[in-house]
Design goal:
- By secondary structure, the protein is an alpha+beta fold.
- 22% of the residues lie in helices and 37% in strands.
- The strands form 5 sheets. Strands 21, 22, 23, 24, 25, 26 and 27 form a 7-stranded antiparallel sheet that branches.
- The longest helix has 28 residues.
- The termini are far apart.
Amino acid sequence: MRASAALTAGLMLLGARGAAAQQRVAAERHSALSVAAARIAPSVVSVNVVGRERAVPNDFFSQFMYPGGFVQRVEGLGSGFIVSGDGLVVTNQHVVAGADSIVVTLRDGRDFQARLLGEDARTDIAVVKIEGTGFPVAPTGRSADLAIGDWVVAIGNPYGYVLGNSEPSVTAGVVSALRRSVLPSDDQAGLYVDMIQTDAAINPGNSGGPLVNAEGEVVGVNSFILSQSGGNVGLGFAIPIERALRVARDLRAYGSVRRGWTGVDVNESAASGNWRRQRGVGIKAVADRSPGDEAGLQAGDVIMRAGDRPVRNFLDWEAALLDLRVGDSLRVAVRRGDDMRLATVRAVELPSAQATRVSLGDLQLITVTPAIQAERQLGVGRGALVVQAGPASALSTGDVILQIDNIKITSAEQVQQVIRYYRGKGWTMRFVLLRGGSIIYTDLTAGQ
């Protein structure tokens, strides 16, 4: 009996040890990153977009048949994540740009028609809203707590249109660099400064999805990659979550970002090739009666420091301005000749945000004033600035209407009057535009 009892006890002990070993193996199999991915995955969504864009013919026959171009239907796909239980979704602005229809797909496969609440091309952040309550919310952390070498996870829906379900994909890597600024390209609307650089793979369709730390908290918004081939080469960039949420709050509350303006225009030395080795950035112009003017800054001053950051080149200056809010004060150190001076610039609302808008169908125009010329760095001081244009419009956001036929334009209201007159007659109008520093012409028939 004693032997039998001892055997039974031994077998029970072995069984308990075996069960404990299995539990340890199961626990070790799930890494911190897999736990982090599981925590965030329910709040990650696909963002499916249908829009329109105006295409320009590239051969003689098509140009003859469609002299003004034609509108074509385009589809796009990106990612996003839910930041409130009532269905607020953060994504990239370039994902939803020009969208006529936005459908958000949850991890469980449910589709929701979404409404665009606002978009900000400068930070590449947009906010869309789906109707409902009780949605899973993404936990957020702080990009300021990241260190180079930290593990991070990029989550989204790459190539979602060829995959069989809506389960998000996960790629892992490390933080490669912090506060990285990327020299803008000619066709880039966003300003990518103070970015998180990671080698976690970010592929087409990942844009707008979360970059997550090892605790499963969102620390960034996946935005773009640098690649000559178009595929991932380990150079991915994410927008810091603090900036994304600050922009999202403004977009939800106001429909636009209440960004501060200083009236200070600086030199951009990228063309010289030595922009990374600069020490300070020169002031090109200061708008009259602007905050910079009131602070005593002058053209020719060299900005050496803005707030707590040294200013080595124009990207550092842009980074200091990007998160500047209306009413914020920015302490600036400038070199004037052999002297160093300190100035405090108190940011005010953008002149374009205060300007009266004139609506013409899918166009919104404002009158170019000296302050708006300084804000937008325009090459002209008169005309009507296009501040919003629909995807099917022949005009683009940022165009300045200088002339319609032989009528020189001095205000947005004048454009409205001229178009109303021509619309009654059905005539074709020749628009003279300033676009990206060049004068161009386009012919539009009244009613387009």
